[in-house]
Amino acid sequence: MAYIVVATSNAHKVEEYEKLLEGQKVELKSLLDFPNFPGVEEDGATFRENAAKKALAACKYCDVPAFADDSGLEVEALDGRPGIYSSRYAPTDAERIAKLLGELEGVENRRARFVCAIAIAVNGEVIETFEGEVKGRIIDAPRGVDGFGYDPVFQPDGYEETFGEMAQELKNKISHRAVAFKLALNFVEDEMSVLDDDFDL
Ligand code: ITT
């Protein structure tokens, strides 16, 4: 079966993409399957630029179609921080959450959004990028142990649960990643000719 590489070493992202790709005629591999992949410096100014860099590097290294996701949390009261620096904001998920709640202590405006940019690279070229978002708010103390990253403190609009409490199937319907991925999948289905003949998505 043809396979596609998602250019991430984040096992939680891989799990979400495996679910999002369920039922499609393609096998998903990730950089966890390519332990010697040299890595990419995420020095772009935007989610889209970083996603494009990651997708291109993986496509060239693995010699198959690849896509990458660069994602993060933008908090209104922090002028969009941590944004593209979400994974580098502090060393661990717990420290990132603690730092975020510390910065927001006493701050009334809790509005935030998750953003996900997905880039697709085929035959050594980035062919398209897509962006998805989910809006919500940052709560005062973590709730739930599911998901990853900032999930336990993010409550999406229209729901009582945080992403950390929500069933994965539901997060996978409404998340920034799900929205961007749907756009990417529609594009691939419409533009199948850009892919190899045996790439039967
Ligand atoms: P790769 O670059 O290998 O894909 P990464 O975790 O470093 O893995 P990013 O550079 O895209 O990925 O950083 C995304 C960070 O944003 C991630 O580490 C989380 O802290 C946060 N984030 C993104 N999507 C999230 C989600 O669905 N739930 C919670 N936090 C998320």
Give the tally of β-strands. 6
Q: What is the C-alpha radius of gyration, as a whole number of Å?
A: 17 Å
Beta-strand residue percentage: 15-25%
Shape: globular
Instruction: Give a list of the ligands.
Output: inosine 5'-triphosphate
Side by side, the strands of the main sheet go 2-1-3-4-5-6
Tally of helical segments: 5
What integer is the average pLDDT?
93
Structural class of the secondary elements? alpha/beta
What order do the helices and strands follow?
EHEHEHEEEHH
Distance between the termini: 10 Å
State the helicity in percent bands: 25-40%
Give the low-confidence spans.
none
Largest sheet: 6 strands, mixed
The gist of it:
The protein has 201 residues and is an alpha/beta fold. It has five helices and six strands.
Task: Produce the secondary structure layout.
Elements: E1 3-6, H1 11-20, E2 27-30, H2 47-62, E3 66-75, H3 93-103, E4 111-122, E5 125-138, E6 154-156, H4 168-174, H5 176-190
Parallel strand pairs: 1-2, 1-3
Antiparallel strand pairs: 3-4, 4-5, 5-6
